[in-house]
Specification:
The chain is built from 16 helices and no strands. It is an all-alpha fold. Among the domains are: 91 residues, no CATH class; 61 residues, Orthogonal Bundle (434 Repressor (Amino-terminal Domain)); 32 residues, no CATH class. It is elongated. About 7% of the residues have low confidence. InterPro entries: Cro/C1-type_HTH, DUF3102, Lambda_DNA-bd_dom_sf.
Length: 281
Amino acid sequence: MAQSAEAMLEAGKRLIILKENEPHGEFIKIVTEKLGMARRTASLIMKAALKYTSPALQSNGQTLAHLGKAKLFELMTEDDEDLAELAEGGTIAGLTLDEVDRMSVRELRAALRKDEAALKRSQQLVAEKEKQLQQLSQKLTGKISSTTTSNEQAPLDTQQWVTLTLEGVGDRLKSERLRLGLSQEIFAERCGVKKLTQYNYEKSERHPDAAYLVSAKALGVDVNYLITGERSDEASALDVVRDEEEANLLTAFRHIPSESRDIVQRTISALSEKKAARHHA
């Protein structure tokens, strides 16, 4: 068990079997007296074995085990789906597998706590938006009640309003991505998800979680517009790319060295003036 994380996980599985087969009360006695192991250590090892040898992570267990025992313990509270994505080339808390491997345990712990704090802030934002939707629902219910002859009008459920609003999230997410001039692949990578996940978000097959929204906001996405459909003061409704072609042009322009941009701008201006001249003629 002391040699590697992989051996530690194997020991955890054997401890679980031992606990299941020993009489009640004997397990702790065996662990502490015969194996010379602290009760808390045995508990951590068993939890780690359950976590990393579960069906969701079994195929990625060996990859994650290379991070070492201490880092596996730090990552135990993360979702299985996020850990599987990390092992398959994705990110967790904005970190790739190689970056996690190079970090110290203390640095990893700090990064995870920072990400957790950002997640809580994002959850607070979502809670505030849900409260606003509830207030809007109540106002609209009041208007309906004042114009209907029936006194049995049921109030609209808040979740119905949340669902109604989320129906447009996919289209608004796509428009924000295009506004920023980013491809699906690049946008997904910077938000810590796979391209397929980004595709599903934009098709409204799935809805983004709080961690994704935090990353998207860092890229410049107007999260208020994304959730409610209303632009915030910090984002202009006019600053919207209309299609993939414009997005590709904008992305290419942003990668042009600053000393060459004047040439591109003059060329575009000349072509625009030429088109305008033909139109007037």
